[in-house]
Design goal:
This protein has 323 residues and is of the alpha+beta class. Helix content is 37%, strand content 13%. The chain contains eight helices and seven strands. A hairpin with a 3-residue loop joins β3 and β4. The chain starts with a helix and ends in an 8-residue tail after the last helix.
Length: 323
Amino acid sequence: HLRTEWRAKRELQEASAQIEQQQVAIQAKGREVQEKDAKVKETMELVKSLQTVAKALCDTMVHLTADLRIRRVDESSDNFFEKDVEGKLFTELLSEGDQARFSSCISRAAQSHIPVCLPVTLHKLYTTSEVHLVLVHRGNTELRYLIGIRVEKDSPYTMPVEEQSPVRKPVPPPRQQADLPGLVPDAPAHFTPVLPVGRQIQAIDEDSESDFSFTTYPKNEIPRPPKFTNYRCRARTIRMILKRWNVPRDCESCCQYHTVIDSIDEAVDCLRQQKCDPLWSTYSEQCPRCACMNQGPKCVVCGYVPDNNRAAGSTAPRGNPGK
């Protein structure tokens, strides 16, 4: 009986020691999991910060699959490319000379895992842009590449010459006219009309295109529709307006800036309740830099001034602006 009791106590002590060891191991694993969670959160915050910096430095960012197709396109990207590019090959937007250079940069980025910068010419729907691409390889994931695009120069899209020249149909030979009563016969080949002295007939180029129209106004090029204003420029315009609002401070808010931001909902609801205005429209002048609409050539959002206005302002006489 005593030996059985001693053996039971011994087994109980061994089980208690084993449980304590397991608890220590579980606590160590818990600390490791917490440290990994902290590292993951730190990495996610770093990724968000880098994305914020990239969006500030780039005009737009796109994701590419392994076969270089554009995926996860948002509204700002569609506005940037001036068309829907979801599922399209990114190389279709590049010129022929840049497609080979882009493919070599893809290979170099995949091997080195280092961001690669490449200047290319990007063809949009209405404009052609000289841009810099920042290419990042994301590993063996579905969205293999991340590309940041920064525009250096925009110019209107010009159609190739072969697309501009119309196809001229061959002129059919004149039909033989029947000898009918009252019909004026054609003049013979050696016929030369006699004109009064001092009067001459101006030669007409029959192969040139007709300038006939139902109006007396000269031909003008069809104006290109304005580009869509992206969300960054719209946000910048709203931020300029916020400086004009004096909103009561909120002690529970982090700062006065976000307090004013939260007050936008009331103003928007007030505008929604107003009557429809069928004649409402934006301003007619668009800034070529930020795509915001203005009343005149000078942009009040980004401060852009055309070269001709800048030259006129520099040559104007300087005087006292207060007079």
